[in-house]
Amino acid sequence: MTALLVVAGAVIGAPLRYLTDRAVQSRHGGPFPWGTFLVNLAGCLVLGALAGAGAALPASLYALLGTGFCGALTTYSTFSFETLRLAEQKAWFYAVLNVVVSVAAGLGAAFVGFATVQAFVAV
Amino acid sequence: MSGDPGAGTTTRRSQLPVVAAVAAGGGLGALARYALIHVWPATPGHFPWATFVTNVLGCLLIGVLMVLITEVRVAHRLVRPFLGVGVLGGFTTFSTYTVEFHGLLTPGSVGVAFAYLGGTLVAAMLAVLAGAALTRRLAR
C-alpha cells in the first residue's frame, strides 16, 4: 500500500520536474541549469516542511508527498550530470557555482521549511 | 533553446508520450528507491547509507546512459525521457539528501552529518565522471 502511494507521488513529481525544466530552460538560454536548480530548491522546501510536521503528519501522507512526490521532483543524477557537462565544456566557474549554490540553497530551503512548519505544529 | 518555432499544437501533442514516459519511469525509479530504504532503513544519528547508495548509483548510471545515447548510438526519442529523466531522476533524490543532513545535525552526530553532506557530493561527482569515462573507453 505504501509502495503504491510512493509511486503515485512520483508519477506526478517526475513529469512536473521535466515540464518545469523545459519551461525554465526555454526562457534562460545561459549555461546555468536553472531548471534543475529550481525543482531541487522547491522539493527541499516542501520535504523540509513535511519533516517539520513530524508525527503530526500521517505516514501515508509522508510516503505520497515526501518519498514519492518530493523524491521524484528532485534529482541528484541530473544535478551531477549537468555539473559534469559544464566541467567538460571547461565552464569551471558555472560547474563550481552549480554545486555550491544548489547545495547551499537546497539546505537553506530544507531548514526554512522545517523550522516554519515545526513552529506551527508546536503552537 | 528548444527551437521549434510556430509548432505550438504539434509540439504539445508530441510532448504527451514524452511526459508519459517520464511519469512511468519516475514511478519505477521511486519504487526502486523506496524498496532500498525499506530493506535498509536509516537509523537516527547514523549515516543514511540507502540514500547515499541510491544517489551515487543513479549518478554512475546517468553517466553511462548519456554517453551511450548521445555519443555511441542513436536512441529512440523516448529512451532519454524514460530512463534518464524518469527512472534515474525518480530514483535519485536531492530533497531527502538535504533533509537527512538537517536531521543529523543533533549533538553527537554533527560529524556524521557533514561526512554525509560532503561524502555524497564527492562520490556522486566521481560516479558520474566514472560512468561517462568508462562507457567512452569501452565503446571505442
Characterise the protein shown here:
The complex is a heterodimer of chains A (123) and B (140). Chain A has 123 residues and is mainly α. Chain A has one domain. Helix content of chain A is 85%, strand content 0%. The model of chain A has no long low-confidence stretch (mean pLDDT 96). Chain B has one domain. Helix content of chain B is 78%, strand content 0%. The two termini of chain B are 31 Å apart. Classes of the chains: A mainly alpha (123), B mainly alpha (140). The interface between A and B is large, with 52 and 52 residues.
Residues in β-strands, percent of chain B: under 5%
Helical run tally of chain B: 5
What percentage of the residues of chain A does DSSP assign to strands (E)? under 5%
Order of helices and strands of chain A: HHHHH
Output the radius of gyration of chain A.
Answer: 16 Å
User: From N to C, what is the helix and strand string of chain B?
Assistant: HHHHH
Mean pLDDT of chain A: 96
| Biggest chain contact | A-B, 52 and 52 residues
Provide the helix percentage of chain B: over 70%
- What would the principal axes of the Cα set say about the shape of chain A? globular
CA-CA gap between termini of chain A: 32 Å
Largest sheet entry of chain B: none
What gap, in angstroms, lies between the N and C termini of chain B? 31 Å
Query: What number is the mean pLDDT of chain B?
Result: 92
Structural class of chain B: mainly alpha
> Number of helical segments of chain A?
5
Structural class by secondary-structure content of chain A: mainly alpha
Helix content of chain A: over 70%
Q: Can you tell me the residue ranges of chain A where pLDDT is under 50 for at least 5 consecutive residues?
A: none
Q: What general form of chain B does the structure show?
A: globular
